[in-house]
């Protein structure tokens, strides 16, 4: 069989061999490999972006969870207490006592650094008020050694986190470059150290000039109340609408109109829902601005299409034999749906609802327009009803507020807020996946 | 809270009606439930339904209509002079409402008696000071007319609320009594209740239509208001965007073209990133990758779609922007002035859109019938030749649809451009310059302190309308293409 191709005489039309690739085949194979590489590169680029995004979130956000504290133990004598209380500037007096105690401790530890009381004040901020209120509430502790953990000023915090370096620090009345030597010394002595910043999780927003004291707590509560509204409105409405469209709707104009509307609403930009909320709920209906109730209503309208689409899919996945069997034993159409189809579709519906809620939780743009951003959430709502109607912030709105403030100290808080927000989202999605794994039935 | 009480009483009537109706039906059948037409529960539910539904409907309509009625009555009593003194009707009415609310607070805190609040007059006391004592701050002294208006407002509201309570309770009782009287063994209670439930389901489904109507009305009315104050031609064809910050119009240039340009430019760059990466990922995942790679890579890439846009916005502002500046900024090439630029926003938005393009294209490529692939392989084509010459042409309409959907996402995206694109509106080709978009300007015009009646605030609604029409058009077009394509293989 190799005869013909091997004879040199028959060279005129060159025959190809399966063993030796000719130029054209090589080219085609090279093109094939290249094309495959493009695909792999695209996947790699996508994953690289993902990794890049998460590392930059973690790297910038984790410092928000730690806080630099000055730990010091000192004794306040009754005499000192009385003199301080008799002064005009009481907190200033406590400040002095504290600073003296700290410098005493520094001297005792034998550190070789020059410092003055002003420098210490710059490092620790203004702790006088905290100390005074402690002793006013616990008068029995006067005369005994008390250990205090006081938050250091946000710039010292930034220095120890690496946000501020010796090169970038500009001398100001808040912190001087020379103070950094003292900070280093204090850190070596174990007086200044990092601690977990509970205030960031439980605290409230602190206003524009105090990034150190800013916390996400109040806005987490705001988001929680918004999600309550979304859950209790969008789940029943969404399920009812899906049941109608999937099980009862006749094929007519009205049904078509509803279907077209739902698929279009799913694609309307979220900012337009914000405009709707502003014009209809706040201006027209007179609901209070910045209230979680209004935010919840707007997010409900946004989430409805998501929930309807997933609910319809899980209703459609229930096989017709179930309906037929129910009808066959004498159930009405309504009974067959509510007693048999709906319970079987429930896991799918819940999964879709949780995913819809997770989307709503991270949505920011509509909240900007209904006034959740200008508002500084300084306190928790006092009552349950107040949780819905009192002005509050929400997690993404709070993050945006921090990101748009001038002090770079807030950027770190914004990243930290994002970590908390993402933790919520991951938890919700994990629950959804678990639900699906646990209860999903293949018919 | 009388409203909460009203609702509670309604529920109580329904609950009692439920028990009574069920009992009466059972009794009419001589206690044997087999003689009833429907299950006993349905007789109870029927009474409860009749008690609640009409009453609740009246309640809602009443509450919606009450403000209009009260406003028009109060306005009618205000002398024309008050309104024409340089301020609009809306401002006077909001004054009236604020004073009325203040009086309510004062009565609630016990600082004023009911009669005193009703008979208070500007001749005998300083209303502003009295209200200030209870923590209600008023901008200016209260004129006699406004105070009278506020008092009328309060009495009208009080009367209307009382009347509403009585009417609603009467309707609830009447409905319950009517349904109760019909609860006997032959009555087809189940059919009635199921009709009621069906009506509820239809109402829930119609919420989608109501939302669309709400969006359209909110946008349309305010857009018309805007075009009364600002010529439409200047808005659509103006090439300058420079709103005055005084809030009292006149000198503002509100041309939409620079914003449109910024929007399209950023979306274009986003698609430039998202389409190649997304499309090639989809091709690799659906044609080359084994099930193992696919089951890992696909969900990982789709994580990008689940990340909230605020995260991308922050990522653009604080990570990508500074990084681009260090690459193209003053120290190296000098192309870029600041971190916020078209490039920053476009790049990050592109990352956001990758999973969007890839999962849509993945579905579409998977929908191409296997027979077409097999035919191509049978003719000796390599895998990549098959993809390029058979699968992609067959999937092209769907892919175009997917890209259009992604484009509509990009145009409507807000947080990334608010944080990453800058605030200056300009017509420029340089992608390293800061530009702004429609969405970013909607946010900045509505979150500022401009008066809501000024063209500077109203322009946001015209921008919203533009955005709505643009994205809706793109979506409808994209869905049309996708649907048309699907018909070929089904």
Description of the structure:
The complex is a heterodimer of chains A (443) and B (490). Chain A has helices at 3-6, 23-61, 78-86, 90-108, 117-124, 128-137, 154-161, 179-188, 198-202, 217-248, 253-265, 270-284, 292-316, 320-328, 333-362, 365-369, 384-389, 395-403, 409-439; strands at residues 66-75, 145-151, 192-196. Chain A is extended and about 90 Å long. The longest helix of chain A is centred in the first third of the chain and has 39 residues, at 23-61. Chain A has two domains: 65-196, no CATH class; 217-439, MetI-like (MetI-like fold), CATH 1.10.3720. Chain A has a three-stranded antiparallel beta sheet. The mean pLDDT of chain A is 81. Chain A has 19 helices and three strands. By secondary structure, chain A is mainly alpha-helical. Chain B is mainly α and 490 residues long. Chain B has two domains: 2-187, no CATH class; 242-489, Orthogonal Bundle (MetI-like fold), CATH 1.10.3720. Chain B has 18 helices and two strands. A two-stranded antiparallel sheet of chain B has the order 1-2. The mean pLDDT of chain B is 84. Chains A and B meet through helix 2, helix 10, helix 11, helix 12 and helix 13 of A and helix 8, helix 10, helix 11, helix 12 and helix 13 of B.
Could you give the topology of this structure?
The complex is a heterodimer of chains A (443) and B (490).
Chain A: H1 3-6, H2 23-61, E1 66-75, H3 78-86, H4 90-108, H5 117-124, H6 128-137, E2 145-151, H7 154-161, H8 179-188, E3 192-196, H9 198-202, H10 217-248, H11 253-265, H12 270-284, H13 292-316, H14 320-328, H15 333-362, H16 365-369, H17 384-389, H18 395-403, H19 409-439
Antiparallel strand pairs in A: 1-2, 1-3
Chain B: H1 2-28, H2 40-77, H3 80-84, H4 89-109, H5 114-119, H6 127-133, H7 144-181, H8 189-229, H9 232-237, E1 241-242, E2 253-254, H10 257-288, H11 291-306, H12 309-328, H13 342-366, H14 370-378, H15 383-412, H16 415-420, H17 438-447, H18 455-489
């Amino acid at each position: 069989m190799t005869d013909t191709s091997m004879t040199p005489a028959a060279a005129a039309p060159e025959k190809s061999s399966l063993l030796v690739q000719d130029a054209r085949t090589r080219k085609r194979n090279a093109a094939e490999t290249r094309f495959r590489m493009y695909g792999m590169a695209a996947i790699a680029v996508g994953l690289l972006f993902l990794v890049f995004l998460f590392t930059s979130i973690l790297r910038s956000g984790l410092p928000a969870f730690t806080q630099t504290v000055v730990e010091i133990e000192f004794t306040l004598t009754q005499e000192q207490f009385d003199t301080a209380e008799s002064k005009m500037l009481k907190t200033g007096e406590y400040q002095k006592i504290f600073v003296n105690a700290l410098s005493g401790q520094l001297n005792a530890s034998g550190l070789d650094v020059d410092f003055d009381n002003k420098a210490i004040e710059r490092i620790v901020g203004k702790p006088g008020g905290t100390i005074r209120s402690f002793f006013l509430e616990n008068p029995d502790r006067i005369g005994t050694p008390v250990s205090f953990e006081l938050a250091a000023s946000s710039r010292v915090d930034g220095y120890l986190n690496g946000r501020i370096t010796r090169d970038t620090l500009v001398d100001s009345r808040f912190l001087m470059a020379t103070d950094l030597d003292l900070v280093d010394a204090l850190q070596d002595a174990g007086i200044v150290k990092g601690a977990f910043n509970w205030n960031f999780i439980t605290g409230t927003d602190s206003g524009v000039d105090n990034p150190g004291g800013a916390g996400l707590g109040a806005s987490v509560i705001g988001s929680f109340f918004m999600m309550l509204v979304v859950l209790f409105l969008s789940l029943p409405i969404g399920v009812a609408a899906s049941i109608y469209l999937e099980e009862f709707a006749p094929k007519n104009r009205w049904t078509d109109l509803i279907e077209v509307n739902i698929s279009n609403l799913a694609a309307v930009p979220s900012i337009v829902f914000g405009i709707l909320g502003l014009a209809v709920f706040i201006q027209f209906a007179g609901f209070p601005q910045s209230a979680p109730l209004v935010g919840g209503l707007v997010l409900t309208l946004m989430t409805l299409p998501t929930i309807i689409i997933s609910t319809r899919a899980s209703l459609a996945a229930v096989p017709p034999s179930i309906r037929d069997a129910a009808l066959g034993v004498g159930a009405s159409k309504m009974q067959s749906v509510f007693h048999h189809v709906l319970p079987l579709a429930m896991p799918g519906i819940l999964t879709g609802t949780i995913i819809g809620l997770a989307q709503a939780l991270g949505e920011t743009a509509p909240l900007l327009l209904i006034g959740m951003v200008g508002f500084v959430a300084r306190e928790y709502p006092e009552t349950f009803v107040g949780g819905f109607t009192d002005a509050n912030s929400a997690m993404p709105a709070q993050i945006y507020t921090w990101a748009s403030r001038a002090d770079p100290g807030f950027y770190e808080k914004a990243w930290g807020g994002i970590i908390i927000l993402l933790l919520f989202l991951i938890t919700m999605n994990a629950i959804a996946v678990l639900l699906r794994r646990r209860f999903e039935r293949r018919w | 809270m009388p409203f909460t009480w009203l609702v509670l009483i309604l529920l109580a009537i329904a609950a009692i009606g439920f028990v009574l109706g069920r009992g009466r039906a059972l009794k009419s059948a001589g206690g044997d439930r087999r003689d009833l037409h429907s299950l006993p529960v349905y007789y109870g539910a029927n009474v409860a339904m009749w008690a609640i539904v009409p009453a609740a409907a009246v309640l809602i309509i009443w509450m919606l209509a009450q403000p209009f009625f009260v406003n028009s009555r109060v306005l009618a009593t205000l002398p024309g002079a008050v309104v024409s003194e340089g301020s609009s009707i809306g401002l006077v009415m909001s004054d009236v409402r604020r004073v009325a609310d203040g009086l309510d607070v004062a009565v609630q805190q016990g600082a004023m008696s009911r009669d005193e609040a009703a008979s208070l007059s500007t001749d005998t006391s300083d209303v502003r000071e009295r209200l200030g004592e209870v923590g209600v701050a008023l901008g200016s002294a209260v004129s006699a007319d406004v105070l009278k208006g506020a008092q009328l407002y309060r009495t009208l509201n009080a009367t209307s609320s009382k009347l509403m309570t009585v009417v609603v309770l009467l309707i609830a009782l009447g409905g319950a009594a009517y349904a109760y009287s019909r609860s006997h063994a032959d009555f087809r209670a189940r059919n009635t209740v199921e009709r009621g439930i069906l009506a509820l389901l239809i109402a829930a489904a119609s919420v989608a239509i109501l939302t669309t109507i709400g969006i359209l009305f909110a946008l349309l009315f305010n857009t018309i208001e805007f075009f009364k104050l600002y010529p439409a031609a200047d808005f659509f064809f103006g090439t300058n965007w420079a709103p005055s910050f005084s809030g009292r119009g006149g000198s503002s240039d509100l041309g939409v073209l620079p914003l449109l340009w910024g929007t399209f430019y950023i979306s274009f760059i986003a698609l430039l990133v998202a389409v190649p990466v997304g499309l090639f990922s989809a091709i690799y995942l659906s044609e080359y990758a084994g099930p193992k790679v696919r089951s890992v890579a696909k969900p990982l890439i789709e994580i990008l779609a689940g990340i909230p846009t605020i995260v991308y916005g922050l990522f653009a502002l604080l990570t990508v922007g500074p990084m681009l500046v260090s690459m193209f900024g003053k120290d190296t090439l000098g192309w870029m002035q600041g971190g916020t630029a078209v490039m920053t926003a476009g790049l990050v938005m592109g990352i956001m859109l990758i999973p969007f393009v890839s999962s849509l294209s993945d579905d579409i490529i998977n929908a191409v019938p296997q027979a077409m692939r097999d035919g191509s392989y049978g003719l000796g084509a390599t895998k990549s030749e098959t993809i390029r010459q058979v699968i992609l042409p067959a999937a092209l309409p769907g892919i175009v649809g997917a890209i259009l959907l992604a484009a509509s996402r990009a145009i409507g995206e807000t947080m990334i451009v608010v944080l990453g694109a800058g605030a200056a509106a300009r017509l420029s080709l340089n992608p390293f310059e800061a530009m702004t978009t429609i969405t970013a300007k909607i946010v900045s015009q509505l979150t500022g302190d401009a008066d809501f009646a000024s063209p500077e605030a109203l322009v946001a609604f015209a921008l919203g309308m533009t955005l709505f029409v643009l994205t809706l058009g793109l979506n409808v077009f994209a869905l049309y293409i996708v649907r048309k394509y699907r018909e070929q293989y089904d």
